[in-house]
Amino acid sequence: MSTDLFETPAADAAPAAFADRIMAATLGGIDLVAIHLGRTLGWYQALVDDGPLTSVDLAARTGTQERYAREWLEQQAVGGWLLVDDHDDATRRRYQVAPGAVAVLTDPDSALHVAPVAGFVIAACRRIDDLVAASRSGGGVSWSQFGDDARTAQAALNRPLFLDELPDQIVPAIPELHTALQGGARVADIGTGEGWSSIGLAAAFPTSTFEGFDVDEPSVAAASRHAADRGLDGRVSFAAVDAAALSESRTGAFDVVMAYECVHDMPDPVGVLAAMRAIAHDDGYVLVMDERTAESFAAPADPVERLLYGYSIVCCLPDGLSTPGGVGTGTVMRPAVLAGYAASAGFSRVEILPVEHEMFRFYRLHL
Length: 367
Ligand SMILES: C[S@@+](CC[C@H](N)C(=O)[O-])C[C@H]1O[C@@H](n2cnc3c(N)ncnc32)[C@H](O)[C@@H]1O
What we know:
Blueprint lengths: L14 H26 L2 H8 L4 H8 L3 H13 L3 E3 L10 E3 L4 H5 L10 H10 L1 H10 L5 H28 L4 H8 L3 E5 L5 H9 L4 E6 L2 H13 L6 E5 L5 H4 L4 E7 L8 H11 E12 L11 H18 L14 H10 L4 E4 L7 E7 L1
Parallel strand pairs: 3-4, 3-6, 4-5, 6-7
Antiparallel strand pairs: 1-2, 7-9, 8-9
Helix pairs in contact: 1-6, 3-4, 6-8, 8-10
Bound molecules: S-adenosylmethionine (SAM).
The site of S-adenosylmethionine has 22 residues, from helix 8 and strand 4.
C-alpha cells in the first residue's frame, strides 16, 4: 500500500484540507459502489473478455439495460478505470478496462485482486440500521447477517494469499511448520470460511490431510464445493461447528491447528483457543494469523491501522458482540491482547514469528 496517497491532514490544517478529504472520500465511496455494480452485473468481465465494447454491446452481452450501462461506462471512463475512444455518438463509443486495472478488478488469482473489498463495504452499508441500533442499545450484527457480500469478499480477498503466498513463502519461512506439513500432518483449520487456506496448503503438501471448521454453514458449503472442484475432497473436508466445542470430541487429534484472520471476530476467543490447545496433540503446532496492528494505540495512524479500525466499526466488533457475553475484541487485536487470551486458554507463551507481511502477523502459540 502506497502510504502517501492516504495521508491525513495535520490537526491544525486549514478547513479546506478537511473539506477536500470529504470530497476524496465521496469519490472513493462512489467508486466502490460502481465497482460493486460492475462486478455483480458482469460488466468488467465482459469488457475484459470481449472488449472494446459499446454500451449497446455491453448491455446485450450481460442482459442489462443500455442506458444504465452507458452511464456506468462513462462514469468509469471519467474516473480512469476504463479507456474510451473518441466518438460524438455516445452509444458508439467503445470502452475497455485500463490494462493496469484488469487484474485488480477481474483476476481472482492475482495478489492485486482487491476489488472484492467493495462487497465488504456494501455488506456493511446494507446493515446500517442494525449497526445504529446495536450502537444504541447493545447487541451486535453477526457474520451470517452480513451475508453473502461479506463472506464472498472475505474469501476472495484472502484467496491469493492462501493459494500462493502461504504455501510458497510463508510456511517455508516457519521451518517447524514446514517440516510437519511436508511429513504428512493432520491439520485443523479453525474459522476456515470458504476454505482456501486448507485448499492452498493441501495442494502444496500432498501427504497432509485437512479438516476445516466454521460456524457459518454457507461458508462450509462453499468450501466443500471449492475442494471438490479441485479434486481435493479426499484429503480436505469441512464441517459446520462452533470451534469451541471441538475439545469434547477431538482431543489430541491434530498435528497442526491453525486459525486465519478469525480469532478477533470470535465472541469467545479464549474458549476457541482453549479448544485449539486441546485438539493439538502433545507435539502439535498451533498457528494464528491475525491483523498486523500497531503494538499500541496512537493517533493519527498509518493506512493499515485506519483500515483495521474501519473494518472493526462496520463489521468485526458488531460480529464479536452478536452473541450474548461476547468479549467484543474488534479487528484491532494487538499482540498483547492475543497473548492475554492465549494465557487464559492455557498456552505457555506466544511467539511472534519472523514472517514479513504488510497486513498480517503470524503467531505460534506454545502448548
Ligand atoms: C473473517 S472470517 C475469516 C475466514 C477465513 N479464515 C479467511 O481468512 O478468509 C472469520 C470466520 O470465523 C468464523 N467463526 C467465528 N466464530 C467461530 C467459531 N466460534 N467457530 C468456528 N468458526 C467461527 C466465521 O464464521 C467466519 O467464517
